[in-house]
Write a structure and sequence with these properties.
366 residues, 17 helices, 76% helix
Length: 366
């Protein structure tokens, strides 16, 4: 067996080599790289910030105040089946299933830092609830790309059912890891002002990380599109790279392969989604169980989808429209200009607040 130090060294060498390769490709294809970054900026401006930023703030407020208890009631038996008895874990799972994997990662990580669940329990919970939200699946992928809201509904049901089942095999081994393995323990804010400031600060930090990875992987996507790859191969690579572009490229293939590639992108979350999820989690929470669960989730989701399609949408083929530019639609959506202004204002506010706190600590130390 290869020692851990050698594996880490090999991983760093591989990552460094990929970075050098990326720099060379940017120099060789500057226009495609720039176009990819521009697309990523448009995605953040038009979709991600208006749709996700308010939701991330509300998620943290709901978890800290316990107001999300009613939302998680239907999932309490499932969480107990996973060996997780804290009621707020069911709320975090419900938030993930309804709001998407970014909201799920933020909520689960908050529970770990509050000491409500262990890192091992968080890893199990992520296997079941870190999925794309229904708004994206039903309206963007179903209605916008596949041309059928019914297919979007079946996609969401298939992804959710398969993910919930895939968490069960990891429950026994992971649910009893001691809480002391987490790096630090936070306590919930006691006043409403501190709670609001903490929620906004956490949402700003999460949004910056998400947008950063979206821009980076959009750059990689732009470079990938510069190569004249066969259509099926290109769609497969894009499905593994980023969900939205992968589903759009899959629709260009058409037919049954398009639906299968959409399920690949949605099941794996793409490298971009995995990087975002990793950035939202504390170092003590491993993504290894989640990655292993995807090996089971992918075939299960395909079985569920094609069975449900045969029973409830046998005559629906979908009008594939790869050129559409779908938005991430959520029930709590702000106008993009207002959301961007609010995001920038709160980012500056939180930065100033953090700076004042650090100055106070230094003055006390002196």
């Amino acid at each position: 067996m290869i020692p851990a130090e050698k594996r880490l060294w090999a991983a760093r060498v591989a990552l460094g080599g990929l970075a050098i390769l990326c720099v060379v490709l940017i120099l060789l294809f500057p226009q495609h790289a720039a176009a990819g970054v521009q697309d990523g900026l448009a995605l953040c401006y038009n979709s991600l910030i208006p749709a996700l930023f308010p939701f991330l703030i509300l998620t943290r407020i709901l978890i800290d105040t316990g107001a999300s208890g009613l939302l998680g009631l239907p999932l309490l038996p499932y969480c107990r089946l996973l060996g997780i008895r804290d009621k707020r874990a069911a709320s975090a799972a419900a938030i993930g299933l309804l709001g998407g994997f970014a909201a799920s990662g933020s909520a689960v990580d908050l529970l770990v830092r509050r000491g409500r669940i262990t890192p091992g329990q968080a890893e199990v919970l992520l296997c079941g609830c870190a999925v794309e939200g229904p708004a994206f699946l039903i309206f963007a992928v179903g209605g916008g790309m596949l041309g059928s809201l019914r297919l979007g509904v079946l996609l969401w049901i298939s992804v959710v059912l398969s993910s919930l089942l895939c968490a069960l095999p990891f429950a026994r081994r992971r649910s009893k890891i001691p809480t002391s393995s987490t790096a630090e323990m936070d306590t919930a804010p006691t006043s409403c002002a501190l709670l609001l400031v903490g929620a906004v600060s956490g949402a700003v930090d999460a949004m910056l990380r998400i947008c950063g990875f979206v821009l980076f992987f959009s750059l990689l996507r732009g470079i990938l599109l510069s190569f004249a790859l066969p259509q099926l191969l290109g769609a497969t690579l894009l499905s593994l790279l980023e969900v939205t572009t992968g589903c759009r490229s899959a629709c260009a293939v058409g037919g049954e392969p398009a639906l299968a590639l959409c399920l690949v992108a949605l099941g794996t979350l793409g490298l971009c989604g995995l990087a975002q999820l990793r950035a939202l989690l504390s170092p003590g929470i491993s993504l290894s169980p989640f990655l292993r669960s995807r090996l089971l989730q992918l075939p299960l989701s395909m079985v569920f989808f094609f069975l449900l399609r045969r029973w409830f949408a046998s005559g629906v083929t979908g009008a594939f429209s790869p050129q559409s530019q779908p938005l991430l639609v959520l029930p709590l959506r702000m106008p993009r200009e207002a959301a961007l202004f609010l995001f920038l204002f709160l980012a500056v506010f939180c930065s100033e607040l953090a700076g004042k706190k650090s100055l106070r600590r230094r003055s006390k130390g002196i």
